[in-house]
Write a structure and sequence with these properties.
Blueprint: H1 2-14, H2 18-27, H3 31-34, H4 42-49, H5 51-72, H6 83-95, H7 100-104, H8 120-128, H9 138-150, H10 156-174, H11 178-203
Helix pairs in contact: 1-5, 1-6, 2-4, 2-5, 4-5, 5-6, 5-8, 6-8, 6-11, 9-10, 10-11
């Protein structure tokens, strides 16, 4: 039962779009309207709302993955197959069109048109939340940095797809448990599917 509770907690945490809410509440800026791609992500916050706001949103987007996963480690067995759902739930929540705040107070947050993002920061957050029991996060950090610095891939969605495509094989090499491998596969699938969707929309 605890696995399902933390999976639900993670899904709801992932659905909170800090990078859309904070600039609107504190600066009166709708990031989805200002940005070219309409994405409520922290990269657009840096661009259209400044560095301090961008840093705040980035930290919150990471920690909405870190917090539910880290808290679950005290109540759940990391080797249980259902833990894979706990690990991937915040990513799924961020990628879905569900928004916890709009569900709780639809009139107050009716201005939010876009309720899903590119799920990069929250993916890193989920993996950081595994520490110190697992350092799986480095299986994602390595390809992400390699294709950002050494062998740069553009546009950004291709970079993300290739990086997360390498993540699962590196997780296998890392020697993770079957549960963490399943969680890694779920995260990679969600992120890659989301960015393939972005590429399809951009081509229309």
């Amino acid at each position: 039962m605890s696995y399902l509770i933390f999976a639900l907690l993670g899904f709801c945490s992932g659905s909170i779009m800090y990078s859309q809410i904070f600039p609107y509440v504190f600066l009166g800026k709708d990031i989805t309207a200002l940005s070219d791609d309409g994405n409520p992500g922290c990269s657009n916050v840096f661009l259209h709302a400044g560095i301090p706001m961008g840093i705040l949103c980035l930290i919150c987007d990471i920690f909405k993955g870190v917090l539910p996963v880290f808290l679950s480690l005290s109540f759940c067995d990391i080797r249980h197959f259902l833990f894979a759902l706990v690990l991937a739930a915040p990513v799924l929540g961020h990628a879905s069109s569900f928004c916890l705040l709009k569900f709780i107070a639809p009139k107050k947050f009716q201005w939010m048109k876009q309720c899903s993002g590119k799920v990069i920061a929250v993916s890193f957050g989920c993996l950081i939340g595994l520490m110190p029991q697992s350092y799986l996060v480095f299986a994602l950090v390595i390809p992400f940095l390699f294709f950002s610095v050494v062998f740069r891939i553009n546009p950004h969605s291709y970079h993300v797809i290739v990086s997360f495509g390498c993540f699962f094989p590196l997780a296998v090499i890392h020697g993770c448990s079957r549960t963490l491998l399943l969680g890694s596969f779920l995260i990679s699938t969600i992120v890659i599917t989301k960015h393939l969707q972005f590429l399809k929309e951009e081509s229309l």
